[in-house]
Design brief:
This protein is of the alpha+beta class. Helix content is 35%, strand content 27%. Strands 5, 6, 11, 12, 13, 14, 18, 19 and 20 form a nine-stranded antiparallel sheet that branches. The chain starts with a helix and ends with a strand. The relative contact order is 0.12.
């Protein structure tokens, strides 16, 4: 891929993604796949006057070794230096950039039980710090090709060709065109206009129905609103948390969901794929489920903590979105969630509550925003999906027909 195009993408992530401010620190998390591009992102952050940029490297084979050889006690411990870093995040409110490229099957064979238990034990400590920085910092998730990921999508090509092909798909769906910043400004305007219309309806509940068996109703929080595209942190800084994004999303009311939903794309979770699954909800809670592949892992996800069996997000994405039109199954949640409508198990978003800046996290959660250590999107959009909004004034308004916007 031409370096001039990659430089545009790096600039988009730094300037439009996290919107680095002068004197701000930046922490980047990346796999070992594209060090040259990571270097570009670091340089773009410094050009925006970042005070310091730190890169943390991940490598799935090492994760598997850690889980295999460390005791559960060691895996579950948050050492002093790790707590000190979390405190540093609280004290400095840095930008966070996540450059994802991992192999969709990269943690296949890992001890799921051991990994889940270690995460459960560390989470109460991490949660205290995470709650203190919630909605205060800018963050952005974007993608770069990894060799294994590229070969998963394009197994018939040589590795170098597959990586180039995946670069093309990432850059196209991320709107890295002649002027990416202008393209994202226009895209954000469109998403915001759709959110404004949805918010004007006074939606009480959404009813989903599809020929694959999905028949599901979920309740809305009176004080909640649809959001989409860029958002503004509590520090007053506008940023784009996901590149790409196509969704208008809201956090539903915890405890108000009935019916069954069927997945329409594989879910990539903890380096493994969960495929062909359904979940039945009663009184907001997942009470029954089954996956043709990796049902044990789906069970681990749903049972991670008290909140992981409830919904944290309802996202509306048209079936004819650019990502879906690409014809590719990315095996990556960042892209596949922005191909079609999806729901998320686990943590909800406090910033979907009106005037959330003047409310505490506890107050937002008391209104019905779910709390959990996980937030995992799974795709339910289909070509014939219909969604109706039942409004507080008694109207029923068509939101989706034939898988896409009805307005």
């Amino acid at each position: 891929m031409k370096k001039t195009i990659l430089r545009k993408y790096a600039r988009l992530i730094a300037e439009c993604g996290v919107n680095v401010q002068k004197g701000q620190e930046v922490f980047i998390q990346a796999e070992l796949d594209q060090p040259e591009f990571v270097q570009m992102v670091v340089e773009e952050c410094y050009k925006l006057k970042a005070k310091k940029v730190v890169v943390d490297w991940d490598y799935q084979p090492l994760t598997k070794l850690h889980v295999r050889y460390r005791s559960l006690t060691t895996l579950s411990k948050l050492d002093n230096y790790e707590e000190a870093r979390w405190q540093h995040y609280v004290d400095t409110i840095p930008c966070r950039i996540y450059l994802i490229s991992e192999d969709p099957d990269g943690l296949k064979g890992v001890n799921q039980e051991k990994m889940a238990k270690s995460q459960q034990k560390k989470y109460p400590i991490i949660k205290g710090y995470r709650d203190q920085i919630e909605n205060k910092y800018q963050w952005c998730i974007a993608a770069v090709p990894g060799a294994a990921w590229a070969k998963k999508l394009f197994p018939q090509l040589r590795t170098s060709q597959a990586i180039e092909k995946l670069w093309e798909a990432i850059l196209e769906t991320s709107r890295v065109w002649d002027d990416p910043v202008a393209a994202w400004k226009e895209h954000n305007t469109d998403l915001q206009n759709r959110c404004n219309y949805l918010n004007s309806l006074g939606i009480k509940e959404l009813h989903y129905k599809s020929s694959n068996g999905t028949d599901f109703t979920v309740g809305m929080i009176d004080e909640a609103q649809f959001c989409g595209g860029g958002e503004t942190s509590l520090q007053g800084i506008f940023f784009n948390p996901n590149i790409p994004t196509e969704e208008c999303f809201i956090s539903p009311k915890k405890g108000v969901a009935e019916g069954v939903v069927y997945s329409t794309k594989p879910l990539s979770y903890q380096g493994q794929l969960i495929e062909n699954f359904w979940i039945r909800f009663h009184e907001g809670k997942a009470v029954e489920w089954n996956a043709e592949q990796n049902n044990t892992l789906l069970t681990k996800l749903i049972e991670m903590d008290e909140g992981s069996c409830y919904l944290g997000e309802c996202a509306l994405v048209p079936f004819d979105s650019p990502i879906n039109q690409s014809g590719l199954l990315f095996y990556n949640t960042l892209f596949d969630e922005n191909a079609t409508c999806h729901l998320a198990l686990g943590m909800g978003f406090a910033d979907t509550i009106k005037d959330f800046a003047h409310k505490t996290l506890d107050e937002c959660r008391a209104l019905g925003v779910n709390d959990s250590m996980v937030h995992e999107d799974f795709m339910i959009g289909s070509r014939d999906l219909a969604i109706d909004a039942v409004c507080r004034d008694g109207r029923t308004v068509a939101i989706f027909r034939d898988g896409t916007w009805a307005f």
